[in-house]
Each structure stands twice: as C-alpha cells, then as structure tokens.
C-alpha cells in the first residue's frame, strides 16, 4: 500500500510549479517591502525553522542582507520589546495557524519591523492576515504528519523572497527545480543500500554545511519523527569540533552537499575520514566525487547551489518513508505528533 507520505513526496514537482507560478509575479511586492529594511529576522519552529535556515544562508550569501533566526520565546514568554526598526520579519508556518508564530510576527510589527508571511494556510490564515506581504504556497492539503511538499514549497517561496531582495542569481534556475525534483523521484540513487545500512542502527549523524545545512537539519528531523532514530543534524564544521566522536560502526554518517558548492571539498574529506575510521558514510548529492568517497550514494539534483536544497531533501524524504516502513512504523502518523503543533 502506498503511504500518504510517499504520495505527497511524489506531488512535489506539481506543487513547486504551482507555487512558482503564483509567487514569481510578486517579486515586486517583496522588493517594495524590502526597500524599507536592512536586515531579516526569520520566525519559525520545527520543519519551518529548517526552511528558515535555508532562507538565512540564501539571503546572506546572495542578497548581502544580515539575517538571524528569532527566538519566539522573547516575544511570547519573556515579553521583551526590542528595537526592530529596519528589520524585515519573515514568519514561516505550514498551517499559518500556529499561535506562537502568529503572535511573534505581531510582536515584531509592534517593535517596528515590516512583515512577510510564508504559509500554505492561504491568504485567510491568521499568519497571512498579520503580514504586510503574504507569500502563500500552493502545496495543497498535506495529510501525512511529516512535512514534505509543504517544506519544499516553503523553500521556493524563500527563493522568491531572495529574488525580491536583489539576490545575484539567475531566476531561470528556480524554474528548473520542478523538473530536477521529478528526475530525482525516478532516480534517487542506491536507496535500498542506505535503508539496509540504517535498519539496525540506533542513530545517525546527518551533516552538511552552508546552504546544504538546512537539508541536513530537515533530514535528521524526518528520521527522528518517522523512524524514531536518534538523528543528529549538524554543520560539518561543528561536527569536527567534537561530536564526530559519536560516529562509529553503530552510528553512521549521512553527508549532504550540492555539486559545485564551496562546501563540497570539505564534505568529501569528511566522508573519507568517516570511512577510514571504520564507519559508514552515506551521501546525498555532491556528484561523483562525494559518491566515490562514501559507502553508498543517493543522487542530488542537477541544480546550482542556491536552489539545490529543494532537490537535496527529496532523497532524504524517500529514505525516511522507506526506512519507516521497513521498521514497521506508519510514516503517515508517527507517535506523539500532530499536523499543527501549538506551543505556549
């Protein structure tokens, strides 16, 4: 039986095309609100927070805007007012109904920020209503609890945001993403080998750097949510500062990189180090160089680094769904989770 999660993974090319068709004509609106600001503050939790990490790296590396990830507790628990004059607050929520995120965006506006919402909840959602500009994604209803198509369409919306902020990139690259994702769905790489390699393992370290860091975090989250693995998502720079000690025969590494990325040589070197230490290094993306350095490889997209995370996550989603089924876990409804999470 095909799971809802697997069906929704397959819907991503269409969801991405619909989202880009809807949002690319609105670059001018983003430009207008962005002209009043100097830096960005991303507001999110969970999977949306991993999308925010992509947004932060993208905006800083290609639009030259200082960016930060918000601590919503400053607004909702400590209730501390900050000077956010000149800040563009970007709140990200799949449902647009997570009260903490809506409240934090309202707080940011009260502190002087301009406000953008990224949500699949539609223009009538509380988050969209609270924003100056709402970038509503077109993923359609997502029934499986683990986010897949809502996550990749969030990345697409953040890429449109970056274009509106003057990113030095080619807009045509973004139009190529749905086809690249479609290709990955048919050619994910050695999925069975990676599933077999993780079947009897209690945990895995998932690592990437730069724009691929968001993919490492999101892949680790999916493996925790749906497979109950102790999956640790880390930048490889942080991994080398000490946590690499946990990588051994019982704790393999899953390493992520885009082709032609400045972080690729370091990722290849890390894979070689892991294998030399007697542990498995499974890889996602990075071309032939990274594949040769690892134990088994999942394919990456044929895309420039700035849009590659929209494709790099797809093999991780497929891995999560397949591994969950092999472990006897229903990936559509992992224990203890709901589609919309409310925090105090």
UniProtKB/TrEMBL annotation:
SUPFAM superfamilies: SIS domain. InterPro entries: GlmS/AgaS_SIS (IPR035466), GlmS/FrlB_SIS (IPR035490), SIS_dom (IPR001347), SIS_dom_sf (IPR046348). It is an enzyme of class 2 (transferase). Its EC number is 2.6.1.16. GO terms for molecular function: glutamine-fructose-6-phosphate transaminase (isomerizing) activity. Pfam families: SIS. Residues 27-172, 194-334 form the SIS domain. Keywords: Aminotransferase, Repeat, Transferase. This is Glutamine--fructose-6-phosphate aminotransferase [isomerizing].
């Amino acid at each position: 039986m095909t799971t809802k999660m697997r069906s929704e993974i397959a819907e991503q090319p269409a969801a991405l095309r619909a989202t880009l068709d809807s949002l690319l004509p609105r670059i001018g609106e983003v430009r207008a609100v962005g002209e009043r600001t100097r830096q960005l503050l991303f507001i999110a939790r969970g999977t949306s927070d991993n999308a925010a990490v992509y947004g932060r790296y993208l905006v800083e590396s290609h639009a030259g805007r200082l960016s930060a990830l918000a601590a919503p507790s400053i607004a909702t628990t400590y209730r501390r007012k900050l000077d956010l004059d000149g800040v563009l607050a970007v709140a990200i929520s799949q449902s647009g109904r997570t009260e903490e995120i809506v409240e934090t965006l309202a707080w940011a506006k009260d502190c002087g920020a301009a406000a953008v919402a990224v949500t699949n909840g539609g223009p009538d959602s509380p988050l969209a209503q609270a924003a100056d500009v709402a970038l509503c994604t077109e993923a359609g209803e997502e029934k499986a609890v683990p986010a897949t198509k809502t996550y990749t369409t969030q990345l697409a919306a953040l890429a449109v945001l970056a274009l509106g902020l003057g990113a030095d990139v080619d807009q045509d690259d973004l139009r190529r993403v749905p086809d690249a994702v479609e290709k990955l769905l048919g050619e994910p790489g050695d999925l069975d080998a990676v599933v077999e390699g993780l079947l009897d393992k209690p945990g895995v370290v998932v690592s990437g750097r730069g724009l691929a860091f968001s993919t490492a975090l999101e892949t680790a989250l999916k493996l925790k949510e749906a497979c109950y693995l102790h999956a640790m998502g880390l930048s490889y720079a942080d991994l080398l500062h000490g946590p690499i000690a946990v990588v051994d025969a019982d704790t393999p590494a899953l390493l992520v990189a885009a082709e032609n990325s400045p972080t690729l040589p370091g990722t290849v070197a890390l894979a070689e180090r892991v294998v030399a230490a007697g542990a498995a290094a499974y890889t996602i993306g990075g071309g032939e160089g990274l594949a040769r350095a690892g134990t088994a490889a999942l394919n990456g997209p044929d895309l420039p680094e700035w849009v590659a995370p929209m494709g790099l996550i797809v093999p991780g989603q497929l891995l999560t769904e397949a591994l969950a089924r092999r472990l006897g876990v229903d990936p559509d409804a992992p224990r203890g989770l709901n589609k919309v999470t409310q925090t105090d």
